[in-house]
């Protein structure tokens, strides 16, 4: 299978190249060789490479900046997936696209289902929803995985930021009323491989699936767990779990509104793939160990 991974320099894209390589040739052009903002350049790449599978991990992920850079955000998050889906529909190729919990309204305290009504709170969320709708309306054999709070042992993310701050400061304040599931990029990639295999076998229907670990926490709880497990792995930190104060979202204003409820129901994906997803804290321990062992 000839696979094209877009966004290969990012957290998910890097893991996808590792996970999908057993399927056959896997190509992932870097930013210097492919400008994803240029639709003509993307079209030329597709004509030249003729992929059987496209895994689209490319995205505008700067949530606050999307409020003022709407054109760039919508190009990467909506127009690019639409372009990829159009190619896949015309060439009978397969597409895996990654979306976000930000497409939901973010209220309440129950987990969102794939059938739940959408209602983004920000330009970023609007752009991700527009991409989902374009893919779903294209007729392509496409899987859309909506995930939350992505992090990994590489790149810039909350886990690595918290570790850096805990080495520099004596106390921290972290938002405690936004609830979700921290999702490692490695888990996303591994489940993608399983899903593609099921898709090829005709045992997985196209459409939207949620993909995250089991369980839930707040950003405050996530930070506490990071410090607890990092210390257990021998990391020297100035801030421990008890040194993290919980603050409400209202005390940490940002240009883009964040959803308070990012819980995602996993029933559909677990049933479809025949798996029980791991809990978020066990995945955190694995990712921290990977990061600290490489340091």
How would you explain this protein's 3D organization?
There is one protein chain. The chain has 295 residues and is α/β, with parallel strands linked by helices. It has a domain at 3-155 and 182-213 and 262-278: 3-Layer(aba) Sandwich (Rossmann fold). 41% of the residues lie in helices and 15% in strands. The strands form four sheets. The protein has a six-stranded parallel sheet, with helices on both faces. Strands 6-9 form a two-stranded parallel ribbon. A two-stranded parallel sheet has the order 7-12. α2 (39-49) runs parallel beside α3 (70-91), α3 runs parallel beside α4 and α7 packs across α9 (280-294). The longest helix is centred in the N-terminal third of the chain and has 22 residues, at 70-91. It is globular, with a radius of gyration of 19 Å.
Task: Give me a quick take on this structure.
The chain has a domain at 3-155 and 182-213 and 262-278: 3-Layer(aba) Sandwich (Rossmann fold), CATH 3.40.50.
């Amino acid at each position: 299978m000839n696979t094209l991974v877009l966004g290969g320099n990012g957290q998910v894209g890097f893991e996808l190249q590792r996970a999908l390589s057993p399927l056959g040739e896997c190509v992932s052009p870097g930013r210097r060789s492919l400008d994803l903002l240029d639709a003509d350049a993307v079209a030329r790449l597709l004509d030249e490479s003729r992929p059987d599978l496209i895994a689209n991990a490319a995205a505008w992920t700067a949530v606050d900046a999307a409020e003022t850079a709407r054109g760039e955000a919508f190009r990467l998050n909506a127009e690019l997936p639409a372009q990829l889906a159009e190619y896949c529909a015309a060439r009978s190729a397969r597409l895996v696209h990654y979306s976000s919990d930000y497409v939901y309204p973010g209220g309440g305290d129950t987990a969102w289902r794939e059938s739940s009504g959408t209602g983004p709170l920000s330009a970023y969320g609007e752009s991700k929803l527009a991409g989902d709708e374009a893919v779903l309306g294209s007729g392509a054999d496409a899987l859309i995985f909506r995930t939350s709070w992505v992090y990994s042992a590489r790149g810039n993310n909350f886990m690595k930021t918290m570790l850096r701050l805990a080495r520099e400061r004596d106390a921290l304040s972290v938002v405690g009323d936004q609830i979700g599931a921290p999702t490692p990029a490695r888990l996303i990639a591994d489940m993608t491989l399983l899903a593609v295999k099921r898709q090829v076998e005709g045992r997985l229907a196209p459409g939207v699936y949620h993909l995250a670990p089991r369980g839930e926490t707040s950003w405050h709880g996530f930070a506490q767990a990071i410090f607890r497990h990092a210390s257990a792995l021998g990391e020297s930190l100035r801030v421990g779990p008890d040194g993290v104060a919980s603050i409400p979202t209202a005390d940490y204003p940002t240009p883009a509104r964040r959803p308070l409820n990012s819980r995602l129901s996993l029933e559909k994906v677990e049933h479809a793939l025949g798996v029980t997803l791991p809990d978020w804290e066990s995945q955190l321990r694995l990712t921290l160990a990977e990061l600290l062992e490489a340091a």
